[in-house]
Amino acid sequence: MKNNEEQKKVRKPLKDLTLLDRFLFDTAMSDPEISRNILSIIFDDREIPPIHFSAAEQTQEPYFDSRAVRLDVLAIDEEGTVYDAEAQKENKGKRFLLRRSRLYQSSIDVNLLQPGDWDFGKMNDVYVIFIAPFDLFGQDKYMYTFQMTCKEVPGLPLNDGAVRIFLNTHGKNDDEVSPELVEFLHYAEKPEQYRKSLQNPRVKKLAEQMDMLKSNQKVGVKYMRLWEELADARLDGMEEAQIASIRNLMKKTGWSAEKAMDMLDIPKENWNRYLKLMEK
Asked: Does pLDDT of 230 surpass 90?
């Protein structure tokens, strides 16, 4: 088992992160100017008002005993439109991600009105956006936009202010979307490959903003601290799994804890800590 220091050595350098890495994407979207630039690229057909609030990792508190939902980034423009954006690097399956987007949508909605306020007309328009390096729907599109429509009357929209968007960096319908969006999605996944060939002013500006973020000392310190916390959490998780294996082996064989740890190839320098944890 790797120790804590060994795990920290595999940390991906900040300069090598892409916009599909959660830390860099969240940091970028937490900046009102950068988030407005990214949203302007995605919503090419309309002007994005200035963002007056943008923050990463928002936790929406649940009602009663329902689960809390941690949203990666929430941005609100001056007209009150809410944007929840997330970089989804890992493909966890269509059913998982679609229902996750549904949960995100509902968790935002339930917090848009103050307690006791029943004027639902005040609810903001909400966009839930996922950016991924895979095609969740298999139609070779760069962008999939979903809004509720009527089954009995095709083309009749519900217009309830809720929109979910799935962006795919591997789309092939270049003639159906803006060149700007294509360039942005390619850059988001492979900045080093596309950085020098960027043509669109807003994507060029975004690349410059990313360079500045990566060279910012405060961002670097934040990334290092976050990664160390995650490494420690991973180690704790492995310890819990190892302890469970030790107990299971002891129960089945009657061996001592030391014998079980030896058979599981757990480094001897960890034995005392494991024994203390098992006592607790």
From this structure: no
Q: What dihedral angle (degrees, nearest 10) is formed by the CA atoms of 137, 141, 142, 147?
A: -70
| Contact call for residues 29 and 56 (beta carbons, < 8 A) | yes
CA atoms within 13 A on the CB side of 16: 4
> 51-60 and 69-77: which strand pairing?
antiparallel
Give the residue from 41, 5, 57 showing the smallest Cα distance to 234.
5
CA end-to-end distance (rounded Å), the chain = 22
Given a contact cutoff of 8 angstroms between Cβ atoms, the answer to whether 187 and 207 are in contact is yes
- Give the start-to-end residue ranges of the domains of the chain: 13-215, 225-279
Compute the distance between CA of residue 58 and CA of residue 72 in angstroms, rounded to an integer.
6
What is the model's pLDDT at position 64? 33
Report the alpha-carbon angle 203-19-226, nearest 5.
140
Q: Partners of 80 in the beta sheet?
A: none
Burial of residue 14 (CB within 10 Å: 0-12, 13-18, 19+) is buried
pTM for the full predicted model: 0.75
Q: How far is CA 197 from CA 67, 144, 187, 191, 274, in A?
A: 45, 26, 10, 10, 54
